[in-house]
User: Fold these one by one.
Assistant:
Number 1:
Amino acid sequence: MKFSTRTDIEAPIEHVFAEVSDFSTFERSAMRRGAKVQRVDSQDVRGPGMAWQTEFTFRGKTREVRIDLEDYEEPVMLGFAGKSAGLTGFCEIELIALSPKKTRMRVSLDLKPHTLSARLLIQSIKLAKGTVDKKFEARVADYARDIAARQDRMA
């Protein structure tokens, strides 16, 4: 199952990339929402090989997901692979400079079930695909507005 959206951000590509690759901020944000996040690699620099073990509640059940940073091409792309007990996923964030002060961000998420329970979960999401797509697009758009706002405060 695939989700994909794109949005334009009133900020330079370097600023947008710095925001989307600020992993410690994402870690803190997930923990504030009740997730457990633990960095499991020993790298000192950002790049492929970074990994996190996460635990969170989704649809009333505790889920564990390992997230690996697989693609890191500054300032244009990040690619994350996620793996849980019955589901794998890949998230790609691609940035394109439209002008010196405007960036297009494309976010795609591809989920693949490997067990019966994961297939049932994906099937239930497919039944609400329109609603889920709208929520996905809205969250990405909200995040893009936050990035632009932080750029405005810095300017």
Number 2:
Amino acid sequence: MNYRLLQTFLVAAGLGFMTGCQTVESRIKEKPEAFAQADLATQEKITQGIIEIGFTEDQVYLALGKPDQKRETRNADGKTATWVYNTYYERPTGTVMTGYHRSVYYDPYLRAYRMYYRPVVADTYVQEKEERIRIAFQDGKATVIEQAKG
């Protein structure tokens, strides 16, 4: 395997991850007018990443960031927007043998080069996704907040 290529890929992925991440501060700089319209208690909650019933969509965005999914429901009472935030992680599933690593060494007794093969193993993981928070908005304000426990 080409380790230089793997190393380059990992560095590029890390830089992409770091530049793609948003913080509360960067979102406040993105929407300063929405932050300025909130009272001091609400501003404090936003900076801590806390949301409550009655928060506007902009205030929830400032506190939690862009949702993983946006859904819209229409019924007799009107439209309801639902934002879903997920948690992504890798779950280990075991170890598999991926092949053999060949080592060449000089045997002074036989005065010849010899090869030694040893098994190479790798840990395997599966990508998992869990719904963390679901927020329902009616008339632009949060009316329901569902949060997973544990």
Number 3:
Amino acid sequence: MPNPSAEQVQTELRALHDPARAKIVMAFFKTGKGGYGEGDVFLGLTVPQVRAVAKSYRGLEMNQIDALLASKFHEERLIALVILVNQCAKGNDSFRKRAVDLYLGRTNRINNWDLVDCSARAIVGRWVREKKQIAVLRKLAASNNLWERRIAIIATHDFSLAGDVNPTMEISRMLLDDNHDLIHKATGWMLREAGKVDATALLRFLAENHAKLPRTTLRYAIERFPPEQRKKMLKGNYPNG
């Protein structure tokens, strides 16, 4: 029996095309002129639909995953990443290195926040943590490409889950001057996750950097704090500041 192909995946996804939902989703993901997702095209599928199809193609070869990443349709790029994430969870070092190389070579196709968020930690973050390659994240964080910067901060979540919040703090510090709201949100989110592991480190980071912290980043970072503490910090009152 021949190996499954990208074309088979595309046939299944396109059979689920929902034009009405696609129109709504394209507005949500800012695909219009000047939006962060400008030019992206959607089939109108739900994430559960994409994941359901992905289950039938767990063994899709990497060159076929690459072919899906080249698609103009958002959901076809999404399913490529879902499949690659699932494969990386079970793959050996050799496979995961190939996956990371493919991923970092196709960041122009991993070009919306949901695509980054579903894949950066599991593919890039785990590899960087296990192989002690933090320089990869530093390079991404310094990129002019919005999505590479988001990959950098989201990938640090793997470190936090393993008990090490330092990479999140370092990359967050690099991104303090970033002017994009999607980076402000992602940074605040990852700081909040780091705070679940080490609340003292989060408080110290916020106190040391509060003068430069974007308001959105701060709001996301302190979401789990008690209401009165949040109010004080939003007014610039920090425990050791």
Number 4:
Amino acid sequence: MYTARGKIEQADLLDEYLPLVRRQALSMQVRLPASIELDDLIQAGTVGLLEAMGRFDATQGASFATFASQRIRGAMLDELRSRDWLPRSVRRNARAVDEGVRRLEQRLGRAADELEIAAELDMDLEEYRQLLSDTNSGHLLPFESLMAEGVEPGIEDASVDTPFRNLIDQEKRQQLIDGIEALPEREKLLMGLYYQEELNLKEIGAVLGVTESRVCQLHSQAVSRLRGRLADKED
């Protein structure tokens, strides 16, 4: 049972970290279908924050800010996974794009352009771009998806830091950085604006001089390139 003082401190902590919930929700929303409401993400993130407040153990070494950030994002991802909103056909198409880009760029030894990728997939340019638009929502948080594959056996809670997890995180993060550096310039700029500067689709479109839907297509294409290169590293 909380004392009156404990309730006040908890309320203060909640007020302090609610802006973090909103920032993470906004960052995540820009790469999701329009059917995913910002309020739903914020609600899930708030639940994650409350869980963090109840479960945080200062003796484990991590700061509360780090612990809370992980729990907030994890709760949002759990909410999205529970909806299973991406059709199987779209998942299949996303894998087909990834494999096509990977195969083509291995053969060419360089980044392929859209026309080359479309030809590899036996499509015209408009069909390929529509496929990118359809599969963009399947590329949720690619780095976190990779991290999920590196979880130490027996550790299910993504908020738990272990030496194994930290090592995997560092290795994969460097691979991801290297992959981004190898992207075509416009896609590299897009990824920097998106993941580092945290601009939304409209803002990125203004910088690149393209529409929001085109930003989605370019993001999807960049992620396909990165997945292919990271898969090469695993082989």
